[in-house]
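User: Please predict the structure of the protein below. I'd like the answer in structure-token form so I can feed it into my own downstream comparison script.

Assistant: Understood. Taking the following sequence of 400 residues as input:
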Amino acid sequence: MDAKAIEALRPRLIAFLEPLEDCFGRCESWASLGHYVRGQLSDLPRKSIEPIALASGMAPRCLQQFLADAKWDENRLRDKIQQRVAARHNSPKTVGQIDETTFAKKGKKTPGIKRQYCGSTGKKDNCVVSVHLSCSAPGGFRSLLDAELFIPEDWAVDRPRCREARIPEDMVYRPKWNIALELIDRSRSNGVRLQWVTFDEGYGHIPAFHADLDRRGQGYVGEVPKNFHGWCRSPAPLYKDHHPQLGVKFKRTAAVASRVDDLVRYSPQFKSQPWVGFYVKDSQKGPVVWEAKVGTFCISHQGVPGRPLLLMVARNAVDHQEIKYFVSNGPPNTPTEELLRVGFARFSVERCFEDQKTELGMDHFEVRNYVSLKRHLIISALTMLFLAEVHAQDVKKKRN
């Protein structure tokens, strides 16, 4: 946005930010939040600390201090974002999305930086990874709810390096799927109720992730890889054993679990079904239609069958070679159209990342400590929520 557009939104931005003032102990920090948000909304080519500060007529060191050292409660700010979404945007059709994004960075000082696969550059590169929870609701609303930095194992064991980056002592290595569960739990504590969440096969290939979502009573439709293993019917038990982690009796089976692509290809319950076409969404090339089949499925977790779930296979109606597999803990009578709606809602978080990076400068941060990075991600989510609500309000006015 240019200066004129931002000025036109000023009254709405002031009203949006006003309930957040109690997150800040001093008026200087409260004023800096306004400068930072307006900087992210601006048409500055680079939206890191120095350009934003200079455009706001303040010294860059003041904005650096705002992110790194000023006493204000970023956790309370994050909670208020989620509470606002819970109060204004919860509906039975709201879907949560779990995903991660990468930020290509140079040097060795950025918290969590490591040479690893970087989606931003499409290759193995020096980058930082963050795990996110977003949500989308009818009417085109979409926004990020929460984020957490992924700390690689070699970082976590190097506590002097962590202390230098101001990573908390109790912050240790956790797999990304564990971080995702923490984000869901945190949003729930703030009143966010997501009937469904969805995720890609990077999370879907982990049986324990499915089990932990199910244990929480969290409905999901998640993509799984074609070599994900299980059974269409719960196999007969062979004998009982003791699980080393769960500490409970479970039933082992002699039946060998099969890949989901083989189950879809050879299992009678899938072979007997015709492909049924469903409209998924509109694209620049026209309506997107996928064909699908749904059957029962039990996940194999270390050779142990879980409770009956749903397995959906979907193929592109135009290109039959494009096939996706989804597992869901939804009720057995869940309509296939609903499973597809949720499973394909993951594009929303990808669009969130794109908008955050291209419009708000989420990847423009140049910080060397965890506190600054965490605060930057929270404020970026706040700025996006403002834009999402402005967009929703304007769309509603046009319709009326």
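That's the full token string. The chain has a mean pLDDT of 92.
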